Automatic annotation (TrEMBL):
Active-site residues, Swiss-Prot/TrEMBL: E181 (proton donor), E378 (nucleophile)
UniProt KW Chaperone keyword: no
Stated name of the protein: Beta-glucosidase
Magnesium as UniProt keyword: no
GO annotation (BP), single: cellulose catabolic process
Catalytic reaction list: Hydrolysis of terminal, non-reducing beta-D-glucosyl residues with release of beta-D-glucose
GO molecular function: beta-glucosidase activity
């Protein structure tokens, strides 16, 4: 029998994929401040909600935290050299709000800004384009104490912080993303309680949705105005975590479950940002639960400040049913059932189904319904990597995952989706939020005892794939 190895399969699928990607397709890697920087109490940085959350017993695996993480704050130049050696043209990273504006109010912290200025210096020297995310979940704890994202004032505080960051870096950095995955900030943080700050109130979470989007809009307005005034180039975006919702059967109940899942997971964010209004069906669903979005006059116009690019973080598509396994159509609270259905599919170490064709479907749908250029700002997988006797990490499963999803991007482009780049998540193993250091998403291994970085096979494959695309 002629068996095809995962590495050979990845090479074959890559050759097919890159044939549909243009030479100017953007290739990158992505990280987030709290997950890699460490130096949690250095140079004026104050606690974020994640510092606090990590200190609550039982919230994070083994009680771990980001105090040291990958020590990127001290190892940044060597990490930038590693990024450049991968051949990527873009590095997407987030700024730490409590490092730049300790406490979430007042003037900028010069030492905090200096770190990011040095980072941009290093990237420019290596020919790598910086792509800044303003908010990747590290709300200053003082703002959470004052109400957090369910409070309207937090949107204004975010806009103030964004102005400090843009004023310092906007003349040198073109690519800006306001928020990373506001669904996670709102729902995981305020509705389900399994991420910082760990609150569980669905109504407050919906208020957080609106104030996150309002903060996005206010920050976008400022950057638009300042870019025009100063003559700065600006590529402005918002990053959403998006998937697909497929009904288990053709029943009305399953179709309604998908409508609700897509509405709360995607359209509740996309519609106001792109179309200037919240989806009427979801507004009605919320009203039936006694919940209203706290919209004030003028808010939606602010939220709909034009974007240049939509960042798409994709990890999986999902199958939904509108009935319980016992056949009920309402849950214990009397609400319609929206149940995710598990399938017999390959999975990552996060127990997430691997569904690359769903990425193609998603990108084509986004093009059709919203018409914005897209960049895959995160895509990747955690697997249980092992270091072989030769010191190498032969992560064929991750290599295949990346190859399949890059091929899915190429397929979407072939169907007319304006996808302009792909950023692998993540550059290196890091603090994986509530999972602590238990899950490894990196294409570069980090030995947390020594902080040694080692390219996994997937990193070498990614480097070679980028080279192949540019020289196709």
């Amino acid at each position: 029998m002629n068996l095809v190895t995962p590495q050979a399969y990845a090479r074959e699928i890559t050759a097919q994929a890159v044939s549909g990607l243009p030479a100017d397709f953007r290739w990158g890697v992505a990280t987030a401040a709290y997950q890699i920087e460490g130096a949690a109490a250095e140079d004026g940085r104050t606690p974020s909600i994640w510092d606090t959350y990590c200190g609550v017993p039982g919230m994070v695996v083994r009680g771990e935290n980001g105090d040291v993480a990958c020590d990127h704050y001290h190892r940044m130049p060597e990490d930038v050299a590693l990024i450049a050696d991968l051949g990527v043209d873009t590095y997407r990273f987030s700024l730490a709000w409590p490092r730049i504006q300790p406490g979430g109010r007042g003037p900028a912290n010069a030492k905090g800004l200096d770190f990011y200025k040095r980072l941009v210096d290093e990237l420019e020297a290596k020919g790598v384009t910086p792509w800044i995310t303003l908010y990747h979940w590290d709300l200053p704890q003082e703002l959470e104490d004052a109400g957090g994202w369910p409070a309207r004032d937090t949107a204004y505080r975010f806009a103030e912080y964004a102005a400090l960051a843009y004023d310092a870096l906007g003349d040198r950095v073109k690519h800006w993303t306001t928020l990373n995955e506001p669904w996670c900030s709102a729902m995981l943080g305020y509705a389900y309680g399994n991420q910082a700050p760990g609150r569980k109130n669905f109504g407050e979470a919906i208020h957080a949705v609106h104030h996150l989007l309002l903060g996005h809009g206010l920050a976008s307005q400022y950057m638009r105005e300042q870019a025009a005034e100063r003559g700065n180039a600006l590529d402005l975006g918002l990053t959403l975590n998006l998937g697909t919702a497929t009904p288990e059967t053709q029943s009305h109940e399953d179709a309604e479950a998908c409508r609700r899942a897509d509405g709360l997971g995607a359209r509740l964010y996309l519609d106001p940002v792109v179309k200037g209004s919240y989806p009427a069906d979801i507004v009605a669903d919320l009203a039936a639960q006694g919940i209203e979005l706290p919209v004030q006059d003028g808010d939606l116009a602010v939220i709909a400040t034009p974007l240049d690019v939509l960042g798409v973080n994709f990890y999986r598509g999902a199958l939904f049913s509108g009935v319980t396994e016992e056949g009920a159509t309402t849950d214990a609270d009397g609400l319609p059932v929206t149940r995710g259905v598990e399938r017999d599919l390959p999975r990552t170490a996060m127990d997430w189904e691997i569904t690359p064709t769903a990425l193609t479907d998603l990108l084509v749908r986004l093009e059709k319904d919203y018409g914005l250029p897209t960049v895959i700002t995160e895509n990747g997988a955690a697997f249980d990597d092992t270091v072989s006797a030769d010191g190498e990490i032969h992560d064929a499963d991750r290599t295949t995952y990346l190859a399949d999803h890059i091929a899915a991007v190429a397929a979407a482009r072939a169907q007319g989706a304006d996808v302009r780049g792909y950023f692998a998540w993540s550059l290196m193993d890091n603090f994986e939020w509530s999972y602590g250091y238990d899950k490894r998403f990196g294409i570069v291994r980090v030995d947390y005892d020594t902080q040694e970085r080692t390219l996994k096979d997937s990193a070498k494959w990614y480097r070679d794939t980028i080279h192949l695309t540019r020289n196709a």
